[in-house]
């Protein structure tokens, strides 16, 4: 008999919620949001922390010019647009020559279609365990490989080209746009490398205006490259000064404005041969005041500590908001019971017991809570399936 009463009460409760669909939906969404926000936020923070810590832990040391260590780590690991001081490529070459560590130079000032262009050594791809899914790795100036996000977002592939962004419309002293030939497309790694263009250092120096090639105006077939002749000599147009595409025929004319070891880089990833070598290298570099040696895991831990302080404060605000929302929902339910007093009196007159009436009301609350909990769990599951790199990009 009791089971039948409960079953009938639950059936009546469901029909009542369906009849007042709009009010029920508002109550469910309010409860779901108050439950989901703290859970989803904690999930995103945890995943972001894991991804951040993993990438930093995989980077033993960073070499840069003296300045902000946080900016250096953010730029070198996540390719964020930070204003970094430069150091000569000689510093990375000397570390390689010492045999204590492998130095992977990074030039990060250029962009192509809004994506960061990273000038580095081809060994960087192996260091980050990046695989070329189509084509091959870059080998000569003017070539590049692109990440999966760029390939999908721009519809680019092997054999296509991507144009670098100019430094500025009126920046006559800077580099000219360069059309890079895509020789490879990286497989997806769910890391910042998916959204970057990789080329060799010489290419990045050309983009920055530290080197260029010239065309032979006497043999070129490009009508825009020649203005005319004067006393039998060919007069070149302004299009000849920098050439915007490094074809194989023009590579022999490539020259730089200075020795390559004096040209700038923004950072270098140092991979010590072993722990002892790393300690010796850190000691030597620590005595110099013209370079800065940074420990990425330590910097990331310091940043995360600050983030957790802010996250804890925000989580407290969300919990307080959830409690307030729950209070409002309970108030609405209490007012709803008062407005339904005639309905409840009618149920009593036709023989419904107080147990049945109480079961009816509790069933409605339980159904609202169950629906809200289901929505909150779905939101939590969806957030936990987001790629870690996407979480970091959303945060930045």
What does this structure look like?
The protein is an alpha+beta fold and 396 residues long. The chain folds into two domains: 2-51 and 304-395, no CATH class; 66-213 and 254-290, no CATH class. It is built from twelve helices and 16 strands. The strands form four sheets. Strands 1, 3, 4, 5, 6, 7, 8, 9, 15 and 16 form a ten-stranded mixed β-sheet that branches. The chain has a two-stranded antiparallel sheet with strand order 2-14. A hairpin with a 2-residue loop joins strand 3 (101-112) and strand 4 (115-119). Helix 2 runs antiparallel to helix 9 (296-339), helix 2 (21-57) packs parallel to helix 11 (354-384) and helix 2 (21-57) packs across helix 12. The longest helix is centred in the last third of the chain and has 44 residues, at 296-339. The model is unreliable at 168-174 and 224-243 (pLDDT under 50).
